[in-house]
Write a structure and sequence with these properties.
Number of helices: 15
Helix content: 25-40%
Radius of gyration: 26 Å
Number of strands: 23
Length: 457
């Protein structure tokens, strides 16, 4: 009764998806002979038509019981039904199910069995998946896998270098799922101060800590019914990882400083640039959390390994830029410029390509031209390694924590000043270029006295 997992198939251009799911066979009542496969993390059983499994019997309550998929297996839980829920004749409140067991809901008997599937996944015939673009075999294999898995509730772990488009794929997974009309909430685990990440995820009660003047919903509550994207999950503090594991397994949590148990229905997609298996070996990431997140591991290849995708990406990125800024003319790309772009190694991957094209488009417009030429794409300058930063001066009187905070504070201020300088003080453009939340950049600029509005006073 494991969750979906993938492995390489026998063919070089195919994957095999192995799926083991719980199934319920109705043995008695009006629905005798029907079978229901538990394909989601939670399955609600009852007489109401709103349930996942509907049993037409007067002894069944409207919302009778539920089956929840947890790390240890499938948990059957009675939901305060009138006539009770039984397992092999014994009345139960909560119990883990095993194949062959008989569950009695009111007077309707259900037999538990497992359904095993091996599905061969061929590369997608499409060159796009949501906002992700690629005609290379590596990308079409990923598209083919996600086309099949996005409609499920399987947890997906996206890996790959910075800038390969993990956030774009996460949004595409949500858009191709039954949850597409529900919230898509993003938490960047690497951008939130360590002391506030728990509140960011789970919310807090009024008075939970200094400054908590009001109760606040966290990301799990905000994403209820939808998808929660945990970006840079490898940066999550080790002491918080057991709490995240508990929520993923039980779908329940408490706000910081609160006592009430809250239940949510959330699909989780996580992403990281780190090798989490290596982090597990180093003791920096919990093994049980890794396996809970990596139900479907997907590693995106760097752009230098799929150069054939560059022309397609160039056109898609320029089209996206025009949608964002309609005053930009439709631009062609000279063949020499396109060849230079395809030959570049792109250490910053698709994000770097996007920024280079944006600069080229603005330059081309300023010159009154309609074609991006070789001189408009300074890839040689882009590929040059940045100078090594000066080594910080340490104070022996400060603790490690104090020293780290001091260095991070200095870096933060220098980076924000540089970023805003690159974009003429335009917060929105700077946040877009840095792939940072605009509100967070606004907050950092205010914190360091660098906000453009401050200079106008």
């Amino acid at each position: 009764m494991s969750e979906p997992r993938t492995e390489l198939g026998t063919q070089a251009d195919a994957r095999v998806l192995e799926v083991s799911r719980l199934a319920l066979v109705v043995l008695s009542g009006a629905d005798r002979g029907s079978e229901h496969v538990v394909a989601r993390d939670k399955c609600v059983i009852g007489k109401s038509r709103d349930n996942d499994v509907v049993l037409r019997d007067d002894t069944v309550s409207r919302v009778h019981c539920e089956i929840v998929r947890e790390r240890q297996g499938y948990l059957l839980r009675d939901l305060g039904s009138t006539n009770g829920t039984r397992l092999d004749g014994a009345r139960v409140r909560e119990v883990f199910l095993t194949p062959g067991a008989v569950v009695t809901v009111g007077k309707v008997e259900l037999k538990v069995r497992t359904v095993a599937e091996r599905i061969e996944l061929l590369p997608s015939e499409r060159e796009t998946f949501g906002g992700a673009v690629g005609k290379s075999l590596a990308m079409r294999e990923i598209f083919g896998l996600l086309e099949r898995l996005s409609p499920s509730d399987a947890t997906v772990l996206l890996g790959g270098e910075t800038g390969v488009g993990k956030d774009v794929l996460a949004r595409a997974i949500h858009a191709h799922s039954p949850r597409k009309d529900r919230p898509f909430v993003v938490v960047d685990c690497g951008a939130v101060v360590a002391s506030l990440i728990e509140s960011e995820l789970f919310g807090h009660a009024k008075g939970a800590f200094t400054g908590a003047t009001h109760a606040r919903e966290g990301a799990f509550e905000l994403a209820d019914g939808g998808t929660l994207f945990l970006d840079e999950i490898g940066e999550l503090p080790l002491d918080l990882q057991p709490k995240l594991l508990r929520v993923l397994e039980q779908r329940t949590f408490r706000r910081v400083g609160g006592n009430d148990e809250r239940r949510v229905d959330v699909r989780v997609v996580a992403a990281t640039k780190r090798n989490l298996q290596l982090e597990v070996e180093r003791g920096k990431f919990r093994e049980d959390l890794y396996f809970r997140l990596a139900v479907v591991p997907v590693v995106l290849p760097p752009l230098r390994e799929r150069r054939e995708d560059v022309p397609l990406l160039v056109r898609a990125l320029l089209d996206d830029l025009r949608r964002r800024e309609p005053d930009l003319p439709e631009l062609r790309v000279a063949s020499a410029a396109l060849e230079a772009l395809a030959a570049h190694d792109w250490p910053g991957n698709v994000r770097e390509l996007r920024n280079v094209l944006a600069r080229a488009a603005y330059l081309t417009r300023s010159l009154g031209a309609t074609e991006i030429g070789l001189g408009h794409v300074p890839v040689a300058q882009v590929s040059a390694a940045p100078p090594e930063p000066a080594a910080p001066v340490f104070d022996a009187a400060l603790s490690y924590r104090e020293t780290k905070a001091q260095v991070e504070e200095a870096f933060e201020k220098r980076y924000v000043a540089w970023l805003l300088g690159q974009h003429g003080g335009n917060i929105s453009a700077a946040a877009r270029a840095a792939d940072m939340d605009r509100k967070y950049l606004h907050k950092l600029a205010k914190k360091h006295g660098l906000h453009p509005a401050d200079g106008k006073r």
